[in-house]
Amino acid sequence: MPRPIARVLTLLELLQSGGLRTVAELADRLGVDERTVRRYADHLIDLDVPVESVRGRYGGYRLAPGYRMPPLMLTDDEALAVLLGLAAGRRGGLTAATGTAAADTAGETAAAKIRRVLPERLRRRLDAVLDSLAFTAPPPGAPAAPQAPVLLAIADAVRHHRPVRIRYTAADGRSGDRTLHPYGLVAHAGKWYVTGADPAIGEDRTFRLDRVAEARTLPGSFEPPAGADPARRVLEGLATAPYRHRVTLRIQGTAEQIHTRLPASVAIVEEIPSRPPSPPWSRVELRVERLDWLPGVLASLDLPFVIERPDELRDLVAALADRLARAARA
């Protein structure tokens, strides 16, 4: 590529990074004089790229907002970051689409469009990375992708503090319309959630976005509560879901230690005040459908613990201890 054309494209790349760039700064980055920078800017304008000239002591050039999107230019690092992000998003269920089949292919078609406009040298190198990429574990079940119009409508309502009307289908198959004052969106374990206040009952609620068929912004506005933490609200909601067993423990350890085996989406951990040099203890509450997996997890913590309830868990822990003792003596 002739050097003047390469420099014009480099100028476009610098302007695409955003903000106002002074003529002196651009001249230094391009290795030319300021008069040549102005000539290169005129070349971009001739190509219908919306370059604005700002006069004054600290003037320079910038891209006009909106109007027409300039050609996409990515450095090697930027192209790799985009394609890896698309690959991770497809795997983690962070791709929104209008249906299951579209959700499976949206990331692939976007990646294909980016690869198609990349130079052959860079495309071969990035394809080598993607072809050799492997994940250490499969995703936890099929990702549940929300519909794109639903995601965009709720995100806009969150940003502008607007109430939203959603058509929601619960896990038991019952569906209906709900009004929500949304605080935030949360992506967790391959699923999207929205959390906010339900004004009809005066309580906070959490909804899975893949179960929302329609979302419509309503007139008016609301003020979210100070210190609202949507991610924490979702994790606490998952940890306190109405499962078959309610488990209460006391474990000698900090919340950080306990969460290494019992994550926040499974267990609520509250540290019990203590005076040094007494070791710290924490109260742990879980709601689970089955108890058979808990004895092994508690043993892997390698921390003293006390089972407050249920009695069935005590029996399972004792049975595990007997099996381990017999295995050690064998």
Describe this structure in words.
This protein has 330 residues and is α+β, with helices and mostly antiparallel strands. The chain has 11 helices and 12 strands. It has helices spanning 3-16, 23-30, 34-46, 76-92, 100-116, 120-132, 148-160, 230-239, 255-259, 294-301, 311-329; strands at 21-22, 51-54, 60-63, 164-169, 175-188, 191-198, 203-208, 212-217, 245-251, 267-272, 281-288, 305-309. It has a 5-stranded antiparallel β-sheet. It has a 4-stranded antiparallel β-sheet with strand order 10-11-9-12. The protein has a 3-stranded antiparallel β-sheet with strand order 1-3-2. Helix 1 (3-16) crosses helix 3, helix 2 (23-30) crosses helix 3 (34-46) and helix 4 (76-92) runs antiparallel to helix 5 (100-116). The protein is elongated. It starts with a helix and ends with a helix.
Structural class designation: alpha+beta
Strand content: 15-25%
Widest sheet: strand ordering:
7-6-5-4-8
> What series of H and E elements makes up the topology?
HEHHEEHHHHEEEEEHEHEEHEH
Helix content: 40-55%
- Average pLDDT rating: 82
Short overview:
Helices cover 42% and strands 23% of the residues. The protein has 330 residues and is of the alpha+beta class.
